[in-house]
Design a protein that fits this description.
By secondary structure, this protein is mostly beta strands. The protein is built from one helix and ten strands; from the N terminus they run βββββββββαβ. The strands form two sheets. The chain has a six-stranded mixed sheet with strand order 2-10-9-4-5-6. Strand 4 and strand 5 form a beta hairpin. The longest helix is centred in the C-terminal third of the chain and has 7 residues, at 102-108.
Length: 121
Amino acid sequence: EMQLVQSGGGLVQAGESLTLSCAASGFSFDEFAIGWFRQAPGKQREAVSCLSYSNDYPDYAQSVKGRFTASKDNAKTTVVLQIRNPKPDPTALYYCALGCSEAPAAASGVWGQGTQVTVSS
C-alpha cells in the first residue's frame, strides 16, 4: 500500500523557519512527482511546491518563491519542505501528495495526513 506520512509543523514566528517532512511507504519518490499543498481556514487548498520525479529542481507558487525550499533525501524516500520568513503565509494545514496540482493529486488518492503550521506575528 502506498502511503505518505508527514511530520513536523507547529508554531512559527516571523523571521523563523520550520521544516515539514513527508515520508513514503511502499514506493520511492523516484517514480512520482510530489506536491506540497496548504489549506487555510475558509480557503481553498492551494499548491505551493512541486518536486518532479525526473529532476531535483522544484517549482513554487509565486507567493512562496524564495522562502520555501522543497528537496528529496538521497534515498528518495523522504521529501522536505522548509518554510522561512513565514510572516506573509496564512496559518494552514499543509499536505504532501502524489501529484503537483489538485487534479492529479486527487486522482492519485495518496495524501499525507496533514500537518498544522501556525504563523504567529
